[in-house]
Design goal:
This protein has 128 residues and is α+β, with helices and mostly antiparallel strands. It has a single domain, classed as Pnp Oxidase, Chain A, CATH 2.30.110.10. 30% of the residues lie in helices and 29% in strands. A seven-stranded antiparallel beta sheet has the order 2-1-5-6-7-4-3. A hairpin with a 2-residue loop joins strand 3 and strand 4. It starts with 6 loop residues before the first helix and ends with a strand.
């Protein structure tokens, strides 16, 4: 089972302005998708909840830690791995969010570049 992204998937998803994420309920059914931002760090893709760990969609990922994403023309089944406790990673992701989304202005980018949002960082791990 491959748990890495292809170069094409990394580029297409990493370059996409938005990502649609539908987490799986306890029974396996998918929730309605939410639209969020996605950033790339090396060979990994990450998302954050602007409402931190209290965000509704973030709570939804905790049921099964899996779901579906769509971005850049790529549809993929993924596992969500919590990564918010890695301070070095969070610093890199803050930079990635600023680089990719600063054109929205500091108030908007600030919703995902803060300690609460960083604590709700998820790595997207692909399934074949």
């Amino acid at each position: 089972m491959t748990t890495t992204w292809t170069d094409d998937e990394l580029a297409r998803i990493g370059d996409a302005e938005e990502l649609h994420l539908a987490s799986a309920r306890a029974d396996g059914e998918l929730r309605d998708p939410v639209t969020i931002w996605v950033v790339r760090d090396g060979d990994d893709l990450y998302v954050r909840s602007m409402n931190g760990r209290d965000g509704a969609w973030f709570h939804g990922t905790e049921d099964r830690h899996e779901g579906e994403i769509h971005a850049g023309g790529v549809d993929k089944h993924v596992t969500f791995e919590e990564s918010g406790s890695d301070q070095s990673l969070n610093t890199r992701l803050d930079t990635a969010y600023h680089t990719k989304y600063d054109h929205y202005g500091p108030r908007i980018v600030g919703t995902v570049v803060n300690p609460e949002a960083a604590a709700a960082t998820l790595r997207l791990v692909p399934h074949p």
